[in-house]
Amino acid sequence: MRPSGRALDQMREVSIETGVTKHAEGSCLIRVGDTHVLCTASVDERVPPFLRNTGLGWVTAEYGMLPRATTTRMRREAKDGQSGRTQEIQRLIGRSLRAGIDRVALGERQIVVDCDVIQADGGTRCASICGGWVALRLAVNALMKAGDVISDPLGAPVSAVSCGLYAGQAVLDLDYPEDSEAGMDGNFVMTGDRLIEVQCSAEGSTFSQDQFGSLMGLAIKGCGELMKMQKGAVS
Prior knowledge:
This protein has 5 helices and 9 strands. It has helices at 84-98, 103-106, 124-145, 176-179, 209-234, and strands at 14-18, 26-32, 35-44, 58-65, 110-119, 158-166, 169-172, 184-191, 194-202. Helix 1 (84-98) crosses helix 3 (124-145).
């Protein structure tokens, strides 16, 4: 039995509320169980120096947790003093979103996706990727409506979900009690039926190829459900 009482292949309840901020070109508040993340996408007509005069666009991300997103207050992180975990997560978000966009069609501009964790209960990076794509989609819609982008640079949604081995069973969408006790956990990032990135690590025990296959099957199911939610949020 999972601590939450969910079935092994059952996601937490997911909701995505769009247009939650006034100024950002795209924004949403995604809730995956008790993990809540505010995602905004901001359009910048400038690109990083290494992309100037290339005709290529860029998508990047920043990630952070508010001081009381967890059970005890954390200190705010300055940009030049970010933890290794924060840097790793925001690079993952950026890589994932860039994999789902045609940078030629975007044109020589940058979209910055900010993911701020309001409340954390496991799976914050996965929720950030899912909500980040929704905010990105809305920002691209605004560019297309204004005539600044002619050809749609976005394809299938980019989604992500965690899976792991809890009490010897393969489970989908770990919350914090499961994540903290999991013998193995992983994050699976997909677009359509294609993989973007898989991060898996054992925590005190190894895992077999068959177990990994079970986790992969759960991830495909979970990402499929999330993609439907993402499409519904931006339709």
